[in-house]
């Protein structure tokens, strides 16, 4: 077992040993500690205790990802964390799990001290399709779900006894952990049937297009279908496989983006109307109604209650 202890100034240099390369900003008086178990050439299991930090992986850093395309799965034992990747935003309470990938930019910020257990491994070891892995990233995993309870218990036990295992046993135990993770991820990953996978690929392209073009007010269901050379009816059939409609998914992603922006101090001087426009709403009243329907409060009220100027992102 390797033990790392570090101050905020030392964290950026050590971050790649715990995460993958990121730019880190530490809160005042930061102290961190991580215990790392090597399970294989591209697998590590760690338990860490950290003060408040923000960690950012830029698009440029993601394009320079290492050949093994690392994935990082974390279970937060204590603390409050927010994660953004693929224009999805997750707020994690104690016990929740989350997957992130090195090949895409992401942000992670904690407003409290945190304790977590992390499994870092090569993407090729996870027995899920590429589209399924990407769709699973930045989705909070329910700590009460049976698969998550099993996975959490297994990782905690493995961390404690790893020193007693041979290298071969560690490798096998690490692979078993990844299999359990795959089972848990299937609870949060949209499932798309189809023997040749063509429907899954098309749906994945449409989901990605939505997330990358939220600001485009012309992106509606008909336009989404046209851009992917399918009929509107075909678009609805594809989205049925993940339990939603194209319009509902587009609206959900726009509101999630607005929800995050309104509590982000970087956008504190950006008016509500500009936030609405930034996520593709032409009309402020339409944005206000949709936000209230989704979150039970107005955008302005949400900002007043949740904007914390001291939070680093």
TrEMBL record:
Give the keywords, sorted. DNA-binding, Transcription, Transcription regulation
Q: Does the record carry Thylakoid as a key word?
A: no
The source's superkingdom equals: Bacteria
**Record's Pfam families?**
AraC_binding_2 (PF14525), HTH_18 (PF12833)
- InterPro entries cross-referenced by the UniProt entry: AraC-bd_2, AraC_XylS_family_regulators, Homeodomain-like_sf, HTH_AraC, HTH_AraC-typ_CS, Tscrpt_reg_AraC-type_HTH
Q: Where is the HTH araC/xylS-type domain?
A: 204-305
Protein name according to UniProt: Helix-turn-helix domain-containing protein
